[in-house]
Amino acid sequence: MYEDRLSEERREKRAAPRPGHEVPGEDLGRIISLSDGVFAFALTLLVLGLTVPSLTGTAGLSSAELSGRLGAALQQDWAKFLGYVFAFVMIAVWWTLHHRIFRLIQRYDTVLMWTNMAVLLEVAVMPFVLEVYTAYSDTQVAVILFAVMQAATGLTINVLWRYASHGHRLVDPKLDDAEIRYIAIWGLVTPAMFVASIGASFLSVDAAEAMWILSIVLRRWGRKYGSS
After folding, report:
1. Beta-bridge partners for 92
2. Domain locations in the chain?
3. pTM of the model
């Protein structure tokens, strides 16, 4: 009796968490709230790159003449508007993917939290990257910088998912393996297209930018393929 009780106490002692030993948590609320806040803040900051055209020498101009000059000034800023829309779409793409995988993740640990912080770091710097791109959109350096940040963000999210889902470490043990592989594989398509666009930029900046649009199309096609 005494030996049995002693053995049971030893087993309980071994099962109890040791000081400094991490126990995975299940309350993902704070992680998700912080993530959504950073995504929302980045989306809001993007619009600060758009400025109202400043017209000079407008004294004495009629309303029609002023309207014509304003329209011409706005047309000159079309690249800024296009860059803003595309950057907004890309952040939305990463938020959608982030949201999707966190619907499947049930627990967290330190590695997951810091990997997620890396994702948020990359998202938070997007407005600066857009500023550089819209100011120098016809240069290879600006195109490469934008492509590198998008590829890095997508790859980091993919690493986060692969870590969480490996061996069902932090996801539902009943989650289908096919779903895990699908997210992991198709999560690489968009980053791969941005990496490829870096190589294409050495031949043509326009070709590199066209590959960015293609990455969105392929991602959409991938979602249809996966649901069929």
Report:
1. none
2. 25-227
3. 0.79
